Amino acid sequence: MKNNLFPFLNLQHTLKRIWVVCVFMCFIPLVEMHAQNLKPLANGLKQDVHCGCADSGGNVYSVTRNKKGDSVIVNRYNILAKNWSVYARLGRTLITNQTYYTQCLFLNNRFYLTAVFKNSPGVNEIWEFSGGWKFINSIGRAGYGDIKSIVFNNKIYFSGMFDTAAIHPQVVAFNGTSLSDPGLPGIYIPQGPSPATMDVNNSNDTLFMTYQNRVLFHTAPSKWGIYYTHPFILQSVAVANKYVYVSDVQGKISTLVNGVRKDSFSTSQQRINLKAYQNKLFLVHSKSAKNYAVRFGEFKNNEISYYFSNTYKDTTDVTLLNYNNQQLYYYSRDGFTSRNVNYNHIAQVRDTLKVLGIDTIIVRVFKDKNKNYVYDTTTNERGTFYIYETSNLTTVLTDNFGLATFYPLEDEDYHIAFDKEYLQGGDSCYGTPFSGALASKVYNSPFTTETLLMPVWRKTLKQRNLVLRSWGSNRARLL
User: E strand or H helix at 175, and its extent?
Assistant: First the structure.
């Protein structure tokens, strides 16, 4: 159950401000609730996590940056001992605003790291660690953009926007010794930077890759073709069971069969990233265009079931560790906190998951003539107003009745405030009686539809009416 905060308003007339306070006791331990969907990896990691991978034994590796020593640290989580330790250190400095280039993978039981370092800002360097570090090669970059990597056909495939010095301007393959051209025809290469996302089918014989609005397919050693052409720019691709799934910039998820779109589902969400795991299709998406905190869920039968959300307002990602001991992990570069539990950047997603419920918050802005904070349908006038949802950093315009509706997950708290420009479309004779925000606290309990009442008060002491009187004028020309 959730609490409407108006019963707890504390009026401070001397400060001419109302502070909103909500006290709610939850008798269900948070750790117990979260144990259903997430499992901490010991105490997590204190530094920013830039990428993750796993070895053939299922041990987890995360690449962080030592801010004090300014070096790269590869951390290893032992799944048997259940603890973290330093696997390796590389005495090179990551460029802070280009850490999204960092990738780590295992190939033939050897650890590989590719990243952009301060001493070579124009290239992605490839390093191998097998008891010691060994520089392998570098990939030049034509512009700033993301680089993706995947293991296919016993090689690491890198996709991105590389410069003319590279072996191929869009895709290169690495066999553990040298870089090679996998043969992507030039006719498939679009103009401008267009980093691709990649996934491999269950039989591990076909690679699927997005480029702008196309899905390409590749079979070793050098066969390429167009699998599907989409109306909009694509954001990600994933293969689960016999289907190929893609997400686009319009917030739609499309299901492809034999290169034909079988179905399409509109989510109206931002930045959808798809990941297939054990023939299930998982996804993350941003809560709004401005808020990069994300929700994690599963797409099935044209609907999304949500399992948790990350309250950190930062660029986030999900990584799939698919090896002998298959496990799904979620990591975030700058932090990972869900329902007040801090996982310190990384946690394991459990195989058995509890679906989160979706609640309803109705916000009503009304003209409080009596200044008693009570909505009376017979005396209170209504209108359109701008309100600000602080959790999603989103401004919303109410309807003509002063109503707006929000749909939070059961593990999300929403805070509603008057937008500083709320009088656009409203009545300028009215102002806000307080400078705080109303909060809707959501807990793991029966769902309700809650209404938050937001009053506005007349600025003048007395009601005034404008009287219009006719007037006229004459004009004559002097000769």
Answer: none
pLDDT one-digit tens code per residue, 149-205: 899 999 999 887 666 455 666 788 899 888 888 888 877 766 544 557 899 998 889
Give how far Cα 293 sits from Cα of 49, 72, 122, Å.
16, 26, 30
Residues 364/365/371/373 CA torsion (nearest 10 deg): 30
Residues 294, 314: Cα–Cα separation, whole Å: 9
All residues at 6 or more sequence positions from 423 whose CB lies less than 8 Å from its CB, including other chains: 385, 386, 430
Token pair recorded at residue 247: 């997400």
Task: Give the whole-angstrom CA distance, residue 266 versus residue 297.
Answer: 15
- Residues 361 and 408 sit within 8 Å (Cβ to Cβ): yes
155 to 114, 178, 198: CA distances (angstroms)? 14, 10, 14
Torsion-angle region of 340 (φ positive above 0: left; ψ -120 to 50: alpha; else: beta): left
**Residue 133 exposed, middle or buried by CB count within 10 Å (0-12, 13-18, 19+):** middle
What is the reported pTM? Answer: 0.80
Q: Give the C-alpha separation, 10 to 278, whole Å.
A: 52
Please tell me the number of Cα atoms within 13 Å of 169 on its side-chain side.
Answer: 15
- Count of all residues that appear for the chain in the document: 479
d(CA 361, CA 472): 53
For 333-368, the pLDDT digits (tens) are 878 888 788 999 899 999 889 999 888 888 888 888
What is each CA distance from 16 to 12, 13, 399, 434, 448, in whole angstroms?
Answer: 6, 5, 29, 7, 32
Three-state DSSP class for residue 187: helix
Tokens representing 329 are 């992990």
Instruction: Locate 167 and state its tokens.
Output: 């072996």
H/E segment holding residue 30? helix 30-34
Other beta carbons within 10 Å of 291: 17
CB 316 within 8 A of CB 284: yes
Provide the pLDDT confidence category of residue 219 given band limits of 50, 70 and 90: very high
Element at 232 (helix H, strand E)? none
Residue 303 Cα distances to 188, 279, 409, angstroms: 33, 16, 15
CA–CA separation, 9 vs 18, rounded Å?
Answer: 7
H or E stretch covering 193: none
* Cα gap 338→336, rounded to integer Å: 7
Amino acid occupying residue 201: N
Amino acid 269 reads Q
CA atoms of 224 and 208, how far apart (whole Å) = 10
Of 52, 87, 109, 45, nearest in space to 329 by CA: 52
